[in-house]
Amino acid sequence: MTTATRTATVSPFAVFQRRNFTLMWSGQLISTIGSSLTSLAASILVYRLTHSALSVGLMLMATAAPSLVLGLIAGVFVDRFDRKRIMIAADLIRALLVFAIPFLTPLNILWLYVIVMLESCVTTFFDPAHASLLPEVASDEELAAANSLMAISSFGSTAVGFAASGLIASQFPIEWAFYTDAATFVVSAACIALIALAPFKTPGKTDVATVFRNMRSGVAFLARTPILRSVYTLAPLVGISFGLWNSLLLPFARQALHATEFEYGLQEGLTSVGFVVGSLLMARVSSRLREGQWLVIGYIGMGIAGVIYAGLSSISLAIVFVMISGFMNAPSAIARSLVIQRNTPREVRGRVSSVFLVTRDVAFLVGMAAAGLADLWGVRVMMFGTSLLVLIPGALALVLPGLGQPAAEWRRMMQLLRAAPSAPAAGAGRLPTPADFDALAAKLPALANLPHKDRRELLAQARVVDAPAGATILRKDDQGDEVYFILAGRAVAGVATAGGNYRALETMHPGDFFGEIAALMGTPRTVNVVAAEATTLLQVPGATFRRLMEHPTLSHLVHHKFFERMARTNLGELPRFATLDQQALRELRSQSGG
């Protein structure tokens, strides 16, 4: 379980002191202005020619379709090749494609669909590379602000692009929008080229078998990480709702609100203004609540604003409520990015990002296809339905694992972690009994098949420790290699952050274990662990635990947990891990399936 780091004492704009982030932010700002020009100009062009919501939806579907084929494969390449070079190549190719639209579309409107689809193919590689690169240009403490500011760069520029596109469509040749977009891609490529990152070496050859093996391991990592799995569960409903919303906005503006194309472009632009304001606020307050709570606030807020918007007939009031919807989109978008970035290590981040992007695009396709029903049922009815749909993820986020913990309980965990350095330690303990082992094996099946010899050794070497509520079980940076299995109760792990605050990483229950990083790697303790309530633990010496690791089932389970926790604490990227036995790390990774 994770939360945003509390960094109230640090300015959210301090991340601009990092040259790499500033370049990345500037490149996105410029290229997104151009992309929004193309997006809106293409929609207007299709609607002028067909006057059909279905045709607009089909054009937008062309932007999502390539994800079905390339999405997961793109994630593998992003994890295996230099992300910076992938992004530069993608920008230059997209510049050429967009530049060709005014020359090919007059020959046949189908060329617009083809080029949009090709551009989307290239974007399928760019997007996970971009999402994966952000944690490498901003520290963990700066990551919440970095995501908020990057969202401002993206959606703030969208406001400019949409407004400009509406103006161009009504006052100038629409081809100008495409030429401008091509130029912005070139500028973005130049910004990315100036980012200074350590060279990346491909880990071995990349053949078909390697690609599919890496795809499976990326999906498996997401599936076995509770908070990632929970956010992924919400993705399809959110994507369908957004796909419907985006496809219906232009027909709704023209048919229900009787707006001009310029007013439609203004509406789209001010939606982005609302998102920018929300992102600015998130840059300052995101640390006050956990990611799951921001998801609830964002989805429910968007749903309510959308329901009101669907019942309006005034373009002026519609603009107000669509701005509110954009404002409420910021918390959910930023929280979702933080969940992915903070819970995935570098070597799998591209694949996990791609899984989310593929799911998003598939759901977008469903939503866009459903937009054609507006030609039968009416655009107002469909707009009302899509607004109700986004309320469901808001309700689910209240209860899904890793997302739905009550705020009061969360604050109590923070108080326990802050008191950990001075809290009393757990007691000395007693020898375990066969009944203790059987109780643990019932909750941790990987232990159930241990040979009798290993059971006897475990019972002879281990201790049963009772930790009262609030007691410190592990202290960060202490020496020790004992591993703890929870027999009863609950414990919480966390780390200190800048300014003396804490970030909770995981709440553990009966059957869970901790301390394996120190036992396997010989490092000091990496986190504080405190008893959230009266907790009974089986304390296993490191030497005994390492002998138990000879059993494949237990070894496989421990290795997966090892790398999940390295990701949460950013240990996989800390310089001090460079001093460890790198062959041992490679063996652990190979055994974990990464």
Main beta-sheet strand count, sense and barrel state: 4 strands, antiparallel
What's the architecture of the largest domain in CATH terms?
Up-down Bundle
Give the tally of β-strands: 8
Shape: elongated
Low-confidence stretches: 1-9, 570-594
Description:
- The protein folds into two domains: 14-405, MFS general substrate transporter like domains (Growth Hormone, Chain: A, Up-down Bundle); 410-592, Jelly Rolls (Sandwich).
- The chain has 594 residues and is α+β, with helices and mostly antiparallel strands.
- The chain is 67% helix and 7% strand.
- The model is unreliable at 1-9 and 570-594 (pLDDT under 50).
- It has helices at 19-50, 53-64, 66-80, 83-104, 110-137, 143-171, 175-193, 208-223, 226-255, 261-285, 291-310, 315-342, 346-370, 374-377, 379-389, 391-396, 407-419, 434-443, 452-461, 516-521, 542-548, 552-568, 582-592, and strands at residues 463-467, 472-474, 483-488, 491-496, 502-508, 513-514, 528-531, 535-540.
- A hairpin with a 5-residue loop joins strand 4 (491-496) and strand 5 (502-508).
- The longest helix is centred in the N-terminal third of the chain and has 32 residues, at 19-50.
Task: Provide keyphrases for this structure.
594 residues; alpha+beta; Growth Hormone, Chain: A; Jelly Rolls; 4-stranded antiparallel β-sheet; 23 helices; 67% helix; 7% strand; disordered C terminus
